[in-house]
Amino acid sequence: MASESSPLLAYRLLGEEGVALPANGAGGPGGASARKLSTFLGVVVPTVLSMFSIVVFLRIGFVVGHAGLLQALAMLLVAYFILALTVLSVCAIATNGAVQGGGAYCIMAGANMSGELKDPSRAIPLGTIVAVAYTFFVYVLLFFLSSFTCDRTLLQEDYGFFRAISLWPPLVLIGIYATALSASMSSLIGASRILHALARDDLFGVILAPAKVVSRGGNPWAAVLYSWGLVQLVLLAGKLNTLAAVVTVFYLVAYAAVDLSCLSLEWASAPNFRPTFSLFSWHTCLLGVASCLLMMFLISPGAAGGSLLLMGLLAALLTARGGPSSWGYVSQALLFHQVRKYLLRLDVRKDHVKFWRPQLLLLVGNPRGALPLLRLANQLKKGGLYVLGHVTLGDLDSLPSDPVQPQYGAWLSLVDRAQVKAFVDLTLSPSVRQGAQHLLRISGLGGMKPNTLVLGFYDDAPPQDHFLTDPAFSEPADSTREGSSPALSTLFPPPRAPGSPRALNPQDYVATVADALKMNKNVVLARASGALPPERLSRGSGGTSQLHHVDVWPLNLLRPRGGPGYVDVCGLFLLQMATILGMVPAWHSARLRIFLCLGPREAPGAAEGRLRALLSQLRIRAEVQEVVWGEGAGAGEPEAEEEGDFVNSGRGDAEAEALARSANALVRAQQGRGTGGGPGGPEGGDAEGPITALTFLYLPRPPADPARYPRYLALLETLTRDLGPTLLVHGVTPVTCTDL
User: Fold this and answer.
1) Are the beta carbons of 522 and 573 closer than 8 angstroms?
2) For residue 77, what pLDDT is reported?
3) Is the pLDDT at 698 greater than 80, yes or no?
4) Are 453 and 727 in contact (CB under 8 A)?
5) CA distances from 514 to 146, 355, 518, 521 (A)
6) What string of DSSP letters covers 299-325?
7) What are phi and psi of 609, to 5 degrees?
8) In 3-state terms, what secondary structure has residue 652?
9) Across 54-63, 104-113, 188-197, 371-380, which has the greatest mean pLDDT?
10) CA dist 276 to 24, 27, 121, 259, Å?
């Protein structure tokens, strides 16, 4: 993993002043973006340039028509090896001393060696502008003088006419040799520095590992050998005109990448991007990108398309290969800019029920015991917001610093390792209940705020450590990565010992549920989620896995009021959540079953027909089954549930307990039954067929009297006992619409 002293961190084309950063890596967010776009260009372009310069030197200086073929070939080989080894030796023993300016090189050569410049933020722009201005002046003067003194035919037919018109002909050859050697050495040095930086940052693994070797003075001589070897391979192309087109296209791609980086930073409105060039604007950047791309395809469409394709493939490889890094990415700045803009346009006043989606807040005490629930909630979100919330107990007044901030890294690592798409929100509060209230109010932003609270069930089951059995959290995965962060097993405390005190008591647990309902939030209580089949929690398709049922009981079994087939807002919410789960690939093969409870005197068929008509309108595919329950709903007008008693009026605690046991027996009797048994009670049906993987039950409102909270929780425990994975759901917001 990259360190702060890595040369690649020092190689940054753009910084706080819009130019290269100093070697210590300090600066704004723009540097790494330009570097990442120019990784391929910074290595290949200088290397090909050095090769191109050597070929020019050899073609002009040694292959002459006066010598014979064998003599010319021998002279060519001897001169080439002498020259190549000379350039190699000079570059390999070059010291790492500070360079005072960048004006002596080609434009990109100074940027390639920005890590060795004494003041790159001043040297690169000043040297580049002076070099360009000086070169432009010389070329224009040369054009005019040549056109005024030379014949048109001479200029068209003799590319070496300067020797014929020069006062001293050898001066032309000396200039050609000096230029070729200077360009070769500067390009080879620049390419080797970039190659060494890539090796230091482990972007290509063992392929470039030997390029990390440096001399005592810090000179990357191994990277020079790598670059020199690449020159020898490219020299096999042989044709000067072909190499000239390739080199020109590569340079134009490099310039376009720099302009694109500046344009991205300008559009991202990064505060640390403050270029000192007074004529800079996004218009000039866009014009530069368009001009470079146009000239690339005018020069060589094939080379232009190939270079862009190669750069795209390399960028994709770096994105897939690159791990955690300490440099910034311009993509993050662009994402922030776009997300902020569209969040402001996400007006909650324009929400419509047709586009409703679950936005979950899952409160987690210790992720070691909540890992299956964490993944199940990720499946239930269906493209909505998913927030992992955690409450740390404490009072900031009595603490020297905030203990919450250091925990974010561990929780973000948990999200990455569990492969869930979730945000993390942590808070500090004297009690879990108050912390839950804080998270319900402040989590999210704008129109993206949680509308559903998800909690684990409060029971006496011993806590389990799923980190020990989940392959994604095994210790070898943490320890085999070089320079990886500490294992998650060391970042989260061990599970609570059975019988030890809890951070949340039963009274506050039910109070938290009541608080969420008062704040108009839906509530989901999950019990025994750790018993879910592993293939149902995976990210793949469940088409080849064992067939399972997902059972939905849309009636409040602890308060069975209303006529048969009556489905209220909460019942529709249950149907919606079960349907959403069935849309997840891992649950595609699961069969959705909806149960209707009939009284002993009610005729079957009528309620099922009404429910099937509703399901057809809602486009929900499910199997409807009627079951006869002696304690079922009686006929009559539906009654809206009131916040008060959670059983029928007039029933005492004993009758409520009996009702919960009866409902539990009814639900258990239907689990594991096949589809051919038909409607019936506990004694009817078929014992063969798929079993129930998950059960959705109607969660009644907590009682108005807080003194009855423990009794309410005890009845929920009786209702869900031995049912396997169960979700108790209470919905308070409409989630379906049948209007066109």
Assistant:
1) yes
2) 59
3) yes
4) no
5) 90, 27, 6, 10
6) H-HHHHHHHHHHHHHHHHHHHHH--S-
7) -65, -40
8) coil
9) 371-380
10) 21, 15, 10, 15
Share of the chain above pLDDT 70, in %: 73
Write out the H or E segment, with its range, that includes residue 456: strand 452-456
Domain parsing of the chain, residue ranges: 7-331, 354-531, 532-740
Residue 386 has a CB neighbour count (10 Å cut-off) of: 24
Q: How far apart are CA 697 and CA 660, in angstroms?
A: 12
Alpha carbon separation from 663 to 458, 488, 629, 667, 668 (Å, rounded): 20, 41, 8, 6, 9
Distance in angstroms (rounded) separating the CA atoms of residues 647 and 650: 8
- The stretch 673-697 carries a mean pLDDT of 59
Which pair of structure tokens corresponds to residue 409? 């890294």
Those residues with Cβ within 8 angstroms of residue 399's Cβ, 6 or more apart along the chain or in another chain: none
Distances (CA, A) of 568 to 563, 640, 733: 11, 8, 11
Helix 221-234 to helix 39-61 angle (10° resolution) is 60
Distance CA 510, CA 504 (A): 10
Average pLDDT over residues 292-320: 87
pLDDT exceeds 50 at position 38: no
* CATH, range 354-531: 3.40.50
**HEC string of 494-525?**
CCCCCCCCCCCCHHHHHHHHHHHHHCCCEEEE
Report helix, strand or coil for 198: helix
Is pLDDT at 96 greater than 70 in this prediction?
no
The residue among 573, 547, 18, 432 whose CA lies nearest residue 261 is: 18
Q: Write the pLDDT tens digit of every residue in 211-264.
A: 888 888 778 888 888 888 887 777 776 677 777 788 889 888 988 988 888 888
Tell me if residue 77 falls in helix, strand or coil.
helix
By the 8 A CB rule, do 680 and 628 touch?
yes
Q: Which two tokens stand for residue 232?
A: 């020898």
List the one residue out of 106, 102, 103, 130 whose CA is nearest residue 49.
106
Output the CA torsion sign for 714, 664, 655, 516. positive
Please count the other Cβ atoms lying within 10 Å of the Cβ belonging to residue 506.
14
Q: Cα separation of 109 and 686, whole Å?
A: 80
What are the tens digits of pLDDT across the range 373-391? Answer: 999 999 999 889 999 999 9
User: 2: number of CA atoms within 13 Å, CB side?
Assistant: 24
How is residue 402 written in tokens? 């905030």
- Decide if pLDDT at 403 tops 70: yes
Sign of CA dihedral 26, 27, 30, 35: negative
Residues 124, 128: Cα–Cα separation, whole Å: 6
Tell me the DSSP string of 248-304. HHHHHHHHHHHHHHHHHHHHHT-TT-----TT--HHHHHHHHHHHHHHHHHH-HHHH
**Summary mean pLDDT of the chain:** 77
Higher pLDDT, 439 or 101: 439
pLDDT of 412 higher than 90 = yes
Question: Up-side HSE of residue 40: CA atoms within 13 Å toward CB?
Answer: 18
pLDDT score recorded for residue 101:
32
Burial of 565 (C-beta count, 10 Å sphere; 0-12/13-18/19+): buried
How many Cβ atoms sit within 10 Å of the Cβ of residue 661? Answer: 15
Range 428-439 average pLDDT: 95
Q: What span, in angstroms and rounded, lies between the C-alpha atoms of 601 and 706?
A: 37
- Residue 445, beta-bridge partner list: 448
pTM of the model: 0.68
Residue 29 DSSP one-character state: T
Predicted confidence (pLDDT) at residue 707 exceeds the cutoff of 70: yes
Contact 277, 307 (CB under 8 A): no
